[in-house]
Amino acid sequence: xxxxxxxxxxxxxxxxxxxxxxxxxxxxxxxxxxxxxxxxxxxxxxxxxxxxxxxxxxxxxxxxxxxxxxxxxxxxxxxxxxxxxxxxxxxxxxxxxxxxxxxxxxxxxxxxxxxxxxxxxxxxxxxxxxxxxxxx
Length: 136
Hints:
Blueprint: H1 4-12, H2 25-40, H3 42-55, H4 65-78, H5 80-91, H6 96-104, H7 106-122, H8 129-135
């Protein structure tokens, strides 16, 4: 029987991005762990953000594209409960070894995680169009 860590590693896939011998530990963790998890969990992140936006009275859906970008960034940076929820979705996909590595430098890795997630959500803004028509 496969262990939890073996199953997680099998589903996450390989590193995304370039890793060299000169890569910092944070950059290596970002490309080997964070990027594959964010890609694997992408559909969930999109639905979580849609739900958040709807629960915030749907204001997001009435904004111009430029203001939507700012809203995404602002929300993830300033709403601590929401950000912690997003972090939990990522951390829950760590192996025990990855978690032990993460806690050694969680502050810097959290910044990387949130920046990657912000860019991922912003780059898929077109996926919110069907919700917009229903929310307004």
